[in-house]
Write a structure and sequence with these properties.
The chain is α+β, with helices and mostly antiparallel strands. The protein folds into two domains: 288 residues, FAD/NAD(P)-binding domain (3-Layer(bba) Sandwich); 103 residues, no CATH class. Helices cover 30% and strands 20% of the residues. Strands 1, 2, 6, 7, 8, 9 and 18 form a seven-stranded mixed sheet that branches. Helix 2 packs parallel to helix 4, helix 3 packs across helix 4 and helix 3 packs across helix 11. It binds flavin-adenine dinucleotide (FAD). Flavin-adenine dinucleotide binds next to helix 2, strand 3, strand 7 and helix 11.
Length: 441
């Protein structure tokens, strides 16, 4: 948190109603929801696109919109709209469960959606410090090519994934597994071309191709950094390309540039090593080549900001309902091994049809007014995050934050004090699904 007297010396670059820091799945949903309610809204984003892990992180696959195992759709509103519109524009495919898309196409569609609702964008700008006065967030100090400057805001929404804004404002937070403090590994996605997808599918004996990596490692063709494919993301609109979720780097603190740099260098090395293995061992990939690595390593876990409620593993596994529900989660407890390759022993696979509600209180941080924290950095434990962190659910939290911030402005209160029943009505009114009533069979 910067000293207010020091901050006042900095020029004011923008003055807005709602400042959204971070333009990932949570940030776009927050920003579009606020802007659609007439709030002057600005998104500050360090990279040159909206979408976060889905675009800058190169991960062209979003799931789950449905209950676990597929079927009834439990996520609507902006998170589903961004996938549906990307598919309708010809850049991918969407079902009631998941979306597979070209990351470049999604970048374009999200900017179109921002333009339609008058949401302003400020790319190439790094959040630096939160402006706090009398316990209220009143904006942020940012840094870009124009130097250090202030953005003044009546409401601030932290969608950085890492809780940068809340941490700077002095909010309490947790990091990693409660026993070890370790976070999930990071992954540098990469996209390859020259793939004969039909042959890959036909030859794929197991989803994870675990036998292939085992053989390659036994023969010295690959370092033992990974034992399973975590995702081959293919979409019919670019049939010879596949996005690969495979690299695996442990012991990364995503809030340290030194760690992110080392992880990126190691991730790119693993990606090129993998391509050599694909060519040699995977039918249909003999001619594959690197198309791209993304702007950033994908972060699965860093800060979780203490909120009015902390969602737990028990809540998730029990499929709990909450009176202040803002939407549904339904993904398994997906925890990648924090100490080595593969998956963690804390993984939990739910029964078919599984779902649980996400309470509003997990995006309301303790201690600071006029601040909301949506997405991966919301209030939960390490295991609940394994499920809650997926993009539809980050979008659910973001959309609720955007609506809540706009309501707070209108009602002259802080998001902590809004009428949650009205928030739920407003969310329903724009296609979000907050309870059993809205579920699309
Ligand atoms: C490798 C990998 C695979 C995954 N697989 C899936 C999957 O199959 N399906 C699924 O739905 N989800 C998946 N996830 C989870 C999901 O992608 C993330 O948890 C989700 O994107 C988090 O959304 P978010 O908006 O909270 O954060 P992010 O997507 O991380 O977005 C945060 C945004 O804030 C910006 N930002 C951060 N700090 C600053 C700052 N200081 N200043 C300015 N800008 C800043 C970032 O550049 C970014 O654009 C995966 C994640 C990873 C890493």
């Amino acid at each position: 948190m910067i000293d207010p007297n020091e901050a006042r010396k900095l020029p004011v670059a923008h003055e807005v109603d709602v400042l959204v820091v971070g333009g990932g799945p949570a940030g776009v949903a927050a920003a579009f929801a606020a802007a659609r309610r007439g709030a002057r809204t600005l998104v500050v984003e360090q990279f040159n696109c909206l979408g976060g892990v889905a675009t800058a992180g190169g991960h062209g696959h979003i799931c789950l919109y449905s209950v676990w195992g597929g079927g009834a759709r439990v996520v609507g509103g902006v998170p589903y709209e961004m996938a549906r519109r990307t598919a309708e524009a010809g850049y991918g495919a969407v079902t009631s469960s998941a979306a597979d898309f070209e990351v470049e196409g999604m970048k374009l569609v999200l900017e179109q959606m921002a333009g339609e609702c008058g949401c302003r964008l400020l790319y190439h700008t790094m959040f630096a410090e939160t402006l706090v006065e009398d316990g209220r967030a009143v904006g942020a100090v940012v840094q870009n090519k124009g130097g250090r400057q202030r953005i003044l805001a009546r409401q601030v929404i932290d969608c950085t994934g890492d809780g940068d804004v809340a941490a700077s404002a002095g909010c309490a937070f947790e990091v990693g597994d409660a026993e070890t403090g370790l976070c999930q590994p990071v992954t540098l996605m990469f996209t390859i071309g020259g793939v004969d997808w039909g042959r890959v599918k036909a030859a794929r004996t197991s989803y994870e191709l675990a036998d292939v990596w085992k053989r390659a490692q036994e023969r010295g063709d690959m370092r033992p950094f990974q034992t399973k494919i975590m995702g081959f993301w293919w979409t019919p609109t670019r049939p010879d390309q596949v996005g690969i979720n495979f690299t695996h780097i442990n012991n990364v603190d995503a809030t340290r540039a030194e760690d992110l740099t080392a992880a990126t260098v190691e991730g790119r090395r693993q990606a090129y090593e993998s391509i050599a293995v694909f060519r040699k061992y995977v039918p249909g990939m003999e001619q594959c080549y690197m198309v791209s690595t993304p702007n950033t390593v994908g972060i699965r876990e860093s800060r979780r900001v203490a909120g009015e409620y902390r969602l737990t593993r028990e809540d998730v596994m029990a499929g709990r309902s909450f009176e202040d529900s803002i939407g549904w989660g339904s993904f398994f407890i997906d925890i990648h091994n924090t100490k080595g390759p593969g998956m963690d022993d804390k993984v939990w696979r739910p029964p078919q049809g599984f779902k649980y509600q996400i309470p509003y209180r997990i995006i309301v941080p303790k201690g600071v007014e006029n601040l909301l924290v949506a997405g991966r950095c919301a209030s939960c434990d390490h295991e609940a995050l394994g499920s809650l962190r997926v993009m539809p659910q980050c979008g659910v939290m973001g959309e609720a934050a955007g609506v809540a911030a706009a309501m707070a402005l209108k009602d002259g209160t802080s998001p902590r004090g809004i009428d949650v029943g009205r928030l739920q009505d407003e969310l329903r009114g724009q296609g979000a699904i907050v309870d059993e009533r809205g579920i699309v069979a």
